[in-house]
Amino acid sequence: MDYTIRIGGEAGQGLQTIGGVLAKVFARSGLHVFTHQDYMSRIRGGHNFYQIRLSDREVMSSREKVDILIALDLNTISIHRGSLSEEGIIIYDAAFIKKGFDSPEFLNIPFEAIAVEAGGNRIMANTVATGAVLGILGMDLNIFEDIIRERFSKKGEEIAGKNIASARAGFDHAVKVCTRCDFAVPEPGGTPLMLINGNEATGLGALMSGCRFYAAYPMTPSTGIMIFLASKAKEYGIVIEQAEDEISAINMALGASFAGTRAMTGSSGGGFALMVEGLSLAAMTETPIVIAEVQRPGPATGLPTRTEQADLLFVLHAGHGEFARVVLAPGTPEQAFYLTNKAFDLAEKYQIPVFILSDQHLADSEWTFRGLDTGRLRHNDYKLRSEALESISVYKRHRLTENGISPMAVPGESGHLIVTDSDEHDEEGHMIEDAETRIKMTQKRLLKKLPLIRQEIEPPLLYGSERPDIVIAGWGSTYGVMKEAVDVFSGDYAIAMLHFSELYPFPSTEKFDYLSVLGNARLSLCIENNATGQFSRLMRAETGYKFDAGINKYDGRPFTLEGLSGELDAHISKL
Amino acid sequence: MPTFQSYEGQTPAWCPGCGNFPILKTLKEALAELEIEPHQLTVVSGIGQAAKLPHYMKCNTFNGLHGRTLPVATGIRLANHEMPVIAVAGDGDCYGEGGNHLLHAIRRNINVKLFVHDNQVYGLTKGQASPTTMEGVVTKTQPFGSLSEALNPMAMAVALDCSFVARGFAGDAEFLKGLMKEALNHKGFALLDILQPCVTFNKVNTYQWYSGRVYRIGDDHDPFDRIEAFKKALEWGEKIPTGIIYRNSRPTLEERIPVIKDTPLIKQRFSFKEAEKEIQGFY
Ligand SMILES: Cc1ncc(C[n+]2csc(CCOP(=O)(O)OP(=O)(O)O)c2C)c(N)n1
Ligand code: SF4
User: Fold this and answer.
1) Tell me: the pLDDT tens digits for A224-240?
2) Rg of chain B (C-alpha set)
3) How does B216-248 read in b/e, with b if 16+ C-beta sit within 10 Å?
4) In angstroms, rounded to a whole number, what is the distance separating the alpha carbons of residues A538 and A528?
5) What is the reported pLDDT for A328?
6) How confident is the model at residue A188 (pLDDT cuts 50, 70, 90)?
7) Which residues are bridge partners to A551 per DSSP?
8) Which residues of B touch A248 (CB under 8 A)?
9) B29 lines ligand 1 (CB under 6 A)
10) Is the shortest distance between the CB of B63 and ligand 1 below 6 Å?
11) B234–chain A nearest CA distance, Å
C-alpha cells in the first residue's frame, strides 16, 4: 500500500492545517508518512500544495502520481488533474469553486454546506475535508477526534464539539457518495510513529544539546528553527534574540558563546553571506558556534521558498583566511537531530564553527520515525571549571598545547582573565605580529586540529548491494529519494546508494573504504540538487575520484521518485 | 580592592600625545574607584586605534571585528548580565561600519556602556574622513573636502531616546572620569562620546581648537528634559557642551526577558533529562 494525497489551493486557504492533521492521524495510526510542501513566496493567493505519501512501509520521498487530490480552488484542478493515478479521485466543493465536473474521478463534497449543516461554520470546511479523506480511505475517526480535542482544548468544549460534528459529517458524506473508493488502508492499532520535519529536528537537537542562545534574522526556510526554539524559550531558559541583521546575529552568538553559553545562529544562503566575516572571527577567536545554513536556490534572493543544494562549496570555503570547520549535512530529520547534537559537541570540543547544512526540502518535509534515542546524545562539558580552573596559576586562553586545543574558561567565573582577539594573538590573547607566533597559532588552529576532527567524521552510508555494479552517491536531503530509488532497481540490478552526511573534513577511507566500492562499480552517478555538481567536485578534489556522470536537478524542486528513477533508467539502459 | 595598578596592561602603541592616553588612564581610575575587579569586567572592542584599548589594560577582553562591537557586547550581556560590559569604539567603528548596530543597541536598551573615542577621523587607516568629520575637511580620500554633513551622535541618540547620552573630552580628564562613573552606574544603554584629538591625522580638531570651545554643562541643565536635551545636543561649533546631555530610566532588555530576569543564563541549570519529554510532542 502506497498512496499519495495532494492538497492544493491558494496560500491562506488552510492547506497546511488539513495536510498537517492528516499526516498526524496517519502517523498515530502507525502508518509511515512523508510530506512535502510546495509553496510560493506569498502570504495570500498563488498556488501552493501540500503532499502526503502514506504507506505501511517506510517512505521518504515524494511521488508524482496522486491518488487523492483535494482541490480547494479551480486552479488546483487544472494544474494537477494530469497527475491523477488510474484509480485516483479528486474531491472538491462545487459550490465553493463555482464549477461542477461529471467525470467519475470527481467527487463533489460540499465542504462548506456540510460544515454549516453540522452546526459549525464555514471555517470548519477544512475539518469536513479532512473527515472526508479519512472516510474515502476507509479509516476511522477516533484519532482525528482526539487531535481535535487536543487542538481546541483551550477554546472550550463547544468549538471542539462542532469540529467533531463537522468531521463526522464530512466522513459520513464521503462514505455515502464515494463509489470507487477502494483504498486498502490497514486497520489502525500499529505503534504510533513520531512525525517531525527537518527544522524541528534541528531545533530539538539544539535544545537537547543544551543550546541556550539563538540569535538570527528571519529568513526562509531557516526560520522554523528559531520558531521552534522560541516556543521552548520559557520552559527551558533559552534566550532568543532577533538581531537587526545576520552580521549582528552571528556576532551576538559569538558573544554569548564567549561568555559561556552554548550558542547557535541560522540563516539561508543570502543571510549566511552576511555572516561570513563573523565566521572567520569565530575561527580566529576559537569561539564555539553552530550555524544552520538552510539552503534555498540562489543567486541573490533566488527562489525564496524552494529548494536547492548549491551552497556546499560556499559554506566550505566561506570566510577569509584558513581555519578548521566542520560541515554536517543531514539527510533526514532523524539525522538532523543527532547531527545537531554532534555539531554542538564538536564546536565546543575543538572551539570551532560547525555547520548544519540543510535545505528547504529537508527543513519542511515531515517524516515518520519509531522514535529518537536520547541515549545516543553527547552531553560533554569541555570548559575549564571549578577545581581544574582553580589549580591553574597562570591561565592563557590561547595556550599552545600538544593537540592544539586551548583550555577554555569563562569570564567572571574565576580570577583569571579571558582575553581574545580577531587580530593574530599570543597565548594570552594579545595581538602580535611576529612570524614565529603566527606560525604556531596557525598550526594550533588548523594543522593540529584538523586531523583530530577528521577522526570524528563518519564515513558515508552504504545502502543496497554490498558489491554494487551501480552506485548512486549524494549528500544531504536527497537521502530519501536515493534510498527508495535503490529499492526500485534492486530487483534487477546490483545497485547501492552511498550517502554522505558528514562532508568536512572529508571522511577518510579508514573506517570504510567507500572508494573501492566506487572503483568496483560499472556505473557511478552523483545525484545533486544543483547545476554544477558541487559534491562531485569536492569528491574529486578530496579523493581524486571522478563519478561517471551526474544527475542534477536545479529547477528549485526536489527530486521525485519517478523523476529520479526515470533518469537512472536512462543511464542504466546504456550499460 | 583594585587600584589603578590592577588594570595595568601592555604598553600602548599609540602616537605620543594621542588623546587616547588620557582616556585609558581615566578609565582605569574610574574602574578602580568603582571597585570593579578586572576579572569581573569584560571590555569589548572592534578594530581601530581606540579598539586596541582593552589590550592596554587588564580585564576580560573580546577584541572583535571593525564595527561589530555592540552585537558581541549584547551577546555577552544576555548570557551573563551580572558582568559589567564596556564597549570601546572609534567613531568610524561605531558610527560608520557599525551604525546599524548602534541604532538597535539603543532601541534594545541593553545594559552596555559604549565609550566612543571620537577623533573625527579614521586613525588606524591613516586619516580618512569618518562620519563625524566636519563638512569641508580635506583628507587624502576626500580631495574636495568631506561633502557629507557630519553626524551629530548626541542629537541622534536623543532622537532615539537613548537612555544615557553624554559627551566628554580627553583634555578634561577629571570631568571625564565622573562621566564614566555615571555611565557605569547608569541602568541601561549608555553612550559616552569622548572628544579625542588625533595628533597625527586630524589637523583641524586639535587640543587648541577644542580649548575655548569645550565647556562643562552646568547644573541648570535638566538631562531628563528631552526637548532641552535636544537643544543641548545641537550645540556644536563655537561652543561645545560636555556632560550628561540626556538620560531616562527605561527598563533594560535584560529586565524584560523573563528567562533571565532573575538569574543570568550561564548560572541556570539545564536538565537534559527533563528536555527528553519534548520528543513526546511529536507523536
Ligand atoms: C571590515 C573592515 N573594514 C575596514 C577595516 C579597516 N579599518 C580598520 S580601523 C578602520 C577605521 C578606524 O577608525 P575609527 O573607528 O574611527 O578608529 P580610530 O582608529 O580613529 O580610533 C578601518 C576602516 C577593517 N579592519 N575591517
Ligand atoms: S593616529 Fe591618531 S588616534 Fe591613532 S594613535 Fe596616533 S594620534 Fe592616536
Assistant:
1) 999 999 999 999 999 99
2) 20
3) ebeeebebeebebbeebbebeeeebbbbbbbbb
4) 12
5) 99
6) low
7) A527
8) 68, 70-71, 74, 100-101, 104
9) no
10) no
11) 28
Nearest CB to B64; choose among A196, A251, A253: A251
pLDDT at A41 over 90: no
C-alpha closest to that of A40 among A11, A69, A16, A60: A11
pTM: 0.97
Axis-axis angle for helices A246-258, A269-285 (nearest 10): 30
Q: Which residues of A touch B104 (CB under 8 A)?
A: 243-244, 248
Beta strand B190-195 with B113-118 is parallel
Of A248, A258, A277, the CB nearest to B62: A258
Yes or no, beta carbons of A420 and B63 under 8 Å apart: yes
B-contacting residues in A 13-42 (Cβ below 8 Å): 27-28
Answer positive or negative: Cα dihedral of A92, A97, A98, A99.
negative
C-alpha cell at A348: 565546543
Q: Is the peptide bond before A505 cis (omega within 30 degrees of 0)?
A: yes
Cα-based distances in Å from A487 to A101, A493, A565:
38, 10, 10
pLDDT at A154 over 90: no
> Distance, CA B168 to ligand 2 centroid (Å)?
18
Instruction: Report the pLDDT averaged over residues B55-75.
Output: 98
Of the bound ligands, which one is closest to the alpha carbon of residue B121?
A: 1
* Spatial distance between the Cα atoms of A20 and A140, rounded to a whole number of angstroms: 17
Cell 487542538 identifies what position?
A151
Query: H/E element holding A148?
Result: helix A142-152
User: In ligand 1, which atom is closest to the CA atom of B130?
Assistant: 16
**Residue pair A490/A437 in contact by the 8 Å Cβ criterion:** no
The single residue listed with the C-alpha cell 529536528 is: A201
Give the type of residue at B221.
H
| Residue A537 predicted with pLDDT over 70 | yes
Distance from CA of B68 to the nearest CA of A (A): 7
Going A193 to A489 to A547 to A364, the CA torsion angle's sign is: negative
Tell me the per-residue pLDDT of A386-404, one tens digit each, with 9 for 90 and over.
888 888 999 999 999 999 9
Instruction: Tell me which residue of A264, A351, A259 sits closest to B266, measured CA to CA.
Output: A259
Minimal CA separation from A16 to chain B, in Å: 16
Q: Which residues pair with A3 in a beta bridge?
A: A54
- AA identity, residue A129: A
Q: How far apart are CA A133 and CA A171, in angstroms?
A: 7
**Backbone phi and psi for residue B252, each to the nearest 5 degrees, phi listed first:** -85, 165
Phi then psi dihedrals of residue A69, to 5 deg: -110, 120
Instruction: List Cα–Cα distances, B281 to A200, A296, A482, in angstroms.
Output: 11, 28, 29
Question: In the A/B pair of chains, how many CB contacts fall below 8 A?
Answer: 188
Select from B109, B131, B136 the least CA-distant residue to B120.
B131
Question: How many angstroms separate the CA atoms of B246 and B30, rounded?
Answer: 21
Helix, strand, or coil (residue A37): strand
ipTM greater than cut 0.95 = yes
Encode pLDDT of B26-41 as tens digits. Answer: 999 999 999 999 999 9
Lookup result for grid cell 502514506? A54
Q: In what order do the strands lie in the sheet with A239-242?
A: A239-242, A213-216, A263-267, A289-295, A353-359, A326-328, A502-504
Sort out which chain B residues have CB atoms less than 8 A from A25's CB and list them: none
Tell me A536's DSSP state.
Answer: H
- For CA atoms A516, A521, A522, A526, give the dihedral sign: negative
Give the number of the atom of ligand 1 that is nearest the alpha carbon of residue B47: 9
